[in-house]
Design goal:
It contains six helices and eleven strands. It is an alpha/beta fold. The chain has one domain: Rossmann fold, CATH 3.40.50.
């Protein structure tokens, strides 16, 4: 039995043809319970993840896997991040309505949608052409006003800086000033930083022009960030 499509960001159901069944809604509710049990405590983050159907962003042949708490391969050698990882990064960002956010690594577009439903103005940059195009088309279908950009995310987006928040969804070999300097004062950056095997989830807060606070929030495993300031692909 099919349920009505969920509204995303108050977009009328008639704006898109993607379906959300009662079965999938139930699986999503179970995932939210799992995230709570794993320590995600932000009610607004959990509410956003309940509101955004992950299967809309999932490879269609594997929708039965959409609400497992796992990362999953997508095109271009990338992945749609594990739901716990999405929730953790989003919780660390502490998104406020009206925040101007730079997402480095659009991927499937799922993280972008979570940020948007939290009330942010989202600028998302992707290096893989196919993923960029797919995400841009999906955002349009969902009526999500997200600025999707094709480019080298490792450089950030200096021409549109400063940003209240910056999120990296790929593993960076190091944190560079060229990114942290794109933060507004009191802005936050969340990024997995480390080697290719394991990364630390780092939260950087810009306190003043040249004063930053950095905290470590556990080990994670991401696909590598590419580009000038990313990992070499050769």
């Amino acid at each position: 039995m099919s349920a009505k499509n969920n509204d995303i960001c108050s977009v009328s159901n008639t704006k898109h043809l993607l379906k959300d069944t009662y079965k999938l809604q139930g699986q999503r509710a179970q995932l939210i319970k799992e995230l709570k049990n794993l320590g995600i405590s932000s009610s607004k983050v959990l509410k956003a993840m309940q509101a955004v159907p992950r299967h809309f962003f999932f490879p269609i042949d594997f929708i039965d896997k959409a609400y497992e708490n796992i990362a999953f391969p997508i095109d271009g050698g990338q992945t749609i991040s594990q739901p716990y990882t999405v929730a953790k990064q989003t919780e660390l960002l502490d998104v406020k309505k009206g925040d101007k956010i730079l997402e480095i690594g659009t991927g499937s577009g799922y993280q972008s949608a979570i940020l948007k439903i939290l009330g942010a103005h989202v600028y998302s940059i992707e290096t893989v052409e196919k993923l960029h195009v797919q995400a841009k088309v999906l955002f349009a279908k969902l009526g999500l006003d997200i600025v999707a950009i094709k480019g080298d995310g490792s450089l950030g987006l200096q021409e549109l800086a400063p940003f209240n928040k910056i999120i990296l969804t790929a593993a960076a070999p190091q944190l560079r000033k060229s990114l942290t300097q794109q933060l507004a004062i009191n802005g936050k950056l969340v990024a997995p930083v480390g080697d290719l095997a394991v990364q630390k989830m780092i939260l950087v807060t810009r306190n003043d022009d040249n004063d930053y606070t950095e905290t470590d929030h556990g080990n994670f495993n991401f696909v590598p960030l590419t580009g000038i300031h990313g990992w070499s692909t050769t």
